[in-house]
Amino acid sequence: MIGAGPAGSAAAWHAAQQGLDVLIVDQAQFPRDKTCGDGLTPRAIHQLELMGIDVTSHYHSKGLKLHGFGGSVEAPWPDSPFGTLGSAMPRTELDQTLLDHAVAQDSVRFLGGAGATEVTVEGSIKQVRLSDGTQIHPRFVIVADGVRSTFGKQLGRTWHKGEVFGIAARSYCDTPFCDEPWIHSHLELRDAEGTIQPGYGWIFPLGDGRANVGCGALSTDKRPAKVNTKKLLHLYADQQRVAWEFAKPQHVTSALLPMGGAVSGVAGPNWMLIGDAAACVNPLNGEGIDYGLETARMAVAILGQGEDFSDTWPAVLREHYGEAFLLARTLARALTYPQFLPLTGPFALRKPLGKYIMPTAARLMGNLVVEQDRDLVARCWRAASGMSMRLRGDRVLWG
Ligand SMILES: Cc1cc2nc3c(=O)[nH]c(=O)nc-3n(C[C@H](O)[C@H](O)[C@H](O)COP(=O)(O)OP(=O)(O)OC[C@H]3O[C@@H](n4cnc5c(N)ncnc54)[C@H](O)[C@@H]3O)c2cc1C
Asked: Could you say which EC number(s) this protein's record lists (predicted)?
């Protein structure tokens, strides 16, 4: 495994369950931080539970509270096979927990501070060279090296920035309201002059005396979000200071998020890219931890079947996420038009429509519609995403 984030560690754990010997390498020494909102939806909690990890005992959320355009709406996590609990955990802790869980398996070894720097490919990967000079001759390689995917790039991974992507910044703020059971998102951010800013803000309580406070915006090559996310974050934290009794934001960092499968070159004969490396991030809510955990499980499920993964892996990704990601990307693209939210926000967030629209939106944004759901929203969502897939799917997803 290249990379010991949620995707790499989960893949190592799943591979150990299949009786495989695993080496995980990461260029960082652990525990390490990762720029993230630290939010975990019920989908992510479900994946962690499948691995025997419970993170809800220290903090759990019951849903999302959305604010803006003169309204505030509560959207509880919907009743679904994933359960109705979310959580949030600083990545220094979550990633260490996952790595420890993997390394607790007898057949898993971890090398920290060891970047995978060179690769020898003769059809398949024959050798991986680490930053300390160690040479490895793996049977399979799962590449979970995150958003920049420097190792993946050597294998031909290309990120298509014409598709929508995220830019975001996060911080940690001390607050006495760290046990607040709703995670909060503000869809209308204004500067001191009252000018509306592109982007949205989030406050994810952590249950440890702090909240993860951040903001983000959606962008494309053609319509770059003209926003300094770190500056916007400070403005947002100032605006929320009284309500949350926030201390000064600490550890402010920012990063990009590739989304919705907008990369190509994700597999070869004996290797697969998973998690952020494969742009498996939900374009509508920026959630990627869950997709890292899910793609880990799915990739390991096809390891050892003796197949060439070059076509199999993109096909598996398309089957599981194609419809939802493609429709989400289309909707997210609409959000890159500066007029979109100011026009639709007041209807969506104010009474009387808000209390009907936003819980539905939160369900769709969280990709919490499942095959078994038979209600009207689920049927319409499936029909629309199926149509997008037929029109564009094979060309623009992991293709
Ligand atoms: C501001 C922001 C907010 C976000 N908020 C949320 C949120 O609230 N909830 C959510 O679910 N998702 C969120 N995300 C997305 C989430 O952070 C990622 O989707 C998630 O970290 C992906 O996990 P991963 O294991 O694929 O990659 P990573 O967690 O990035 O792990 C990759 C690992 O690979 C290692 N590595 C890289 N290159 C090499 C190499 N050559 N050799 C060895 N090791 C290497 C790195 O050191 C790193 O440890 C957010 C992202 C951003 C930027």
From this structure: 1.-.-.-
Rounded to the nearest whole angstrom, what is the distance from the C-alpha of residue 307 to the centroid of ligand 1?
A: 28
Tokens of 343: 């026009």
Domains identified in the chain, total number: 1
Q: Residue 185 is part of a domain; what is its CATH number?
A: 3.30.70
Taking only the tens place, the pLDDT of each residue in 163-197 is 888 999 999 999 999 999 999 999 888 877 777 77
Whether 194 is in a domain gets the answer: yes
How big is the CA angle at 372 (ends 379 and 302), to the nearest 5 degrees? 115
Question: Cβ contacts of residue 163 below 8 Å, gap of 6+?
Answer: 220, 259, 260, 262, 329, 396
Residues 138, 205: contact at Cβ < 8 Å? Answer: no
Cβ of residue 280 lying under 6 Å from some atom of ligand 1? no
How far is Cα 74 from Cα 63, in angstroms, rounded to an integer? 7
Is residue 73 in a domain?
no
HSE at residue 371, side-chain half, CA atoms within 13 A, is: 3
Picking from 93, 87, 110, 113, the residue whose alpha carbon sits closest to that of residue 34 is 93
pLDDT digits over 253-302, tens only? 999 988 899 999 999 999 999 999 999 999 888 899 999 999 999 999 99
For 289-323, the pLDDT digits (tens) are 999 999 999 999 999 777 799 999 999 999 999 88
Probe ligand 1: pick from 23, 24, 27, 55, max atoms within 8 Å of CB? 27
